[in-house]
Amino acid sequence: MKKVWTSAISTKLKRSFFISTIESVLLYGAETWTLTTKEEKSLDGCYTRMLRIALNVSWQDRMRNDDLYNGMQRVTHKIRQRRLNLAGHCVRHPELAAHPTILWEPTQGTASRGRRSLTFVDQLKRDTDLTSAGELRTCMTDRDSWRKRTQGLARDVVTTQATPT
Q1: Between 75-92 and 37-54, two packed helices, what is the crossing angle to 10 degrees?
Q2: d(Cα 140, Cα 87) in Å, to the nearest integer?
Q3: In the chain, how long is the greatest CA-to-CA distance?
Q4: pTM of the prediction?
């Protein structure tokens, strides 16, 4: 891969090659992840470092991340979009195996010590700013309103135009 990244091919081609190879492997199964804020920052940092290597941009070149991304979404926003799309799809299709478990919340048993683990429903609530699983279900069953809600949340695209290299 190093030969590809250090070659003289265009930045646009390197970027599309990066998205089709590295990003697809990195995001495999990411729609089912529950990420804390710390993990999201770590994942964004890792993705940015890999993108810098792919575009052959050193941190000493002092290129801002906005210029580096050049219209691309951050990886955590792509994960959020995939997660919301999967959840809406599973709720609208009761024949799927994931349908009964997608909005499941633990209600019985005693809580163990420490902070409660982040569940998939908690992650969806945090992504959509909704407060209950009932609100999530009613919003997800209406496909048009769910699409409007999810497209507005995950549309954090860096709009700064970088100078071509």
Answers
A1: 120
A2: 8
A3: 60
A4: 0.80
Q: Where are the domains of the chain?
A: 2-103+117-153
Please answer whether residues 69 and 37 qualify as being in contact, where contact means their C-beta atoms are separated by less than 8 angstroms: no
Q: Strands of the chain (E only): list them.
A: none
Tell me the two tokens of residue 9.
């091919």
C-alpha of 106 from chain center = 25
> CA angle, 157 as apex, 75 and 32 as ends, to 5°?
30
Q: Is the pLDDT of residue 26 over 80?
A: yes
pLDDT of residue 45: 94
| Of 156, 147, 152, 19, residue with least CA distance to 85 | 147
DSSP string covering 41-60: HHHHHHHHHHHHHHTT--GG
* pLDDT over threshold 50, residue 24: yes
Can you state the percent helix, strand and coil of the chain, rounding each to 5?
60, 0, 40
- Residue 157's DSSP bridge partners are 73
Task: Give tens-digit pLDDT for 69-125.
Answer: 888 899 999 999 999 998 888 888 888 877 777 777 777 777 788 888 888 888 988
